[in-house]
Amino acid sequence: MFKCKITKKKIPQIIDFGKMPIANGFLKKKDFKREFFYNMGVSFSKDISLLQLNNHPKPEMMFNKDYPFFTSSSNFMKNHFKNYANWAKKKYVKKNETKIIEIGSNDGTFLQNFRSKNFLHLGFEPSKNVSLIARKNGINSIVKFFNRKNLIKFDKFVNKTDLIFGANVVCHIPDLVEFILTCDLALNENGKVIFEEPYLGSMYKKVSYDQIYDEHIFMFSITSIKKIFEIFDFQLIDVLPQNTHGGSMRYVLERKKSKLNRKVKKYLENEKKENINDVSGVIRFKKNCELSKEKLQYKLNDLKRRKKFICGYGATSKSTTILNYCNINSKTIDCIFDTTPNKIGKYSPGMHIPIVDYKNFNKKFYEYAFLFAWNHRKEIEKKEKTYLKSGGKWITHL
Ligand code: SAH
Ligand code: TMP
Fold first, then answer.
1. Which atom of ligand 1 has the smallest separation from the CA of 130?
2. Ligand 2 mean position to 339 CA, how many Å?
3. 340 lines ligand 2 (CB under 6 A)
4. For 262-267, which contacts have Cβ atoms below 8 Å and span 24 or more sequence positions?
5. Superfamily of the domain at 306-395
């Protein structure tokens, strides 16, 4: 049994993905012997309908001076954040000098859209390397985790913040209670918390179990967000599905004022219908994961038997779950091509597949390329148009 991170009640483990390394822990050969592993298990709290990891490394082990993920590495995401900002400005910006905070502001891609006199902005970004890039580009980014201790140093934002934003970060915060209390401390009376995270319903539908890794401590549904925030007298006032990261959901919350609106109610009813709100959904997902693993292993073994060359494309954190759960190493996948300078020349966590500069992708012909960055499919297929033409095939586990 494990303790629910919010209610502190005991909850059973439902899925065991086995031994896992740090998902973004791309490493050099000399560090293989010291590599850190933990057991990745998933449990579900019925009370708050929350899917969560049982064990995970400390946040400081993942979010530090060497964080290898840069929001701006995807043009699609840059554009998405521009649209996200424009939507928020239209809907929620009502006055001059609107005070906004972004949590997990990374290299400043989102906050770039708020660099005008109309806004006072602050980004909380504990990973120093990405935070410094944002700062170089004129973003007020501080190398700190978002919590009450760090917030109170910024007078102008205590009880005075209009909007708190986040994307793909709330699911990274193990102490969600501290996160909500910090939002409460920061927001003014009508303040809103707006964030978007990978969506449990999309993961179930696609069987994209690779969304589960150390950084994603929670996989939220609308029901879970409603229930968690209600404990602290916050109310869910809007939900907006997003097509980013394989299917995400944007949530808008404010302090409780009225009854649940019809739109949110409808979404909640739908989650009930699809068992996204209860344990039977997780049990079905577990079976689907096992089936997916068997199918993938069979497919790759078959290709290798037929002496096909296979490479990977996109050394995503998600790929760490697939490779380690399905036990796929460099005997099957020669290397993984990627654009990220911090990853190139290193090896994938756990399975130690070499990461190679994507510029070399066409130098040797691989009949099959495993697209680990399947959520960037359109952008990558466009960039690598010649690959299909020369007879190459993109494959995924989905
Ligand atoms: N929002 C960006 C980055 C997502 S990656 C995007 O969607 O592309 C998650 C980011 O959150 C990382 O840069 C990480 O350093 C940061 N982060 C993790 N925990 C945090 C916390 N408690 N407070 C603020 N930022 C955090
Ligand atoms: P993500 O799925 O966590 O966003 O990570 C995407 C990874 O894929 C990151 O390591 C960069 C890589 N990538 C490419 O190699 N080429 C591309 O065109 C894109 C969009 C991403």
1. 13
2. 7
3. yes
4. 263/238, 263/239, 264/222, 264/226, 264/236, 264/237, 264/238, 264/239, 267/222, 267/239
5. NAD(P)-binding Rossmann-like Domain (3.40.50.720)
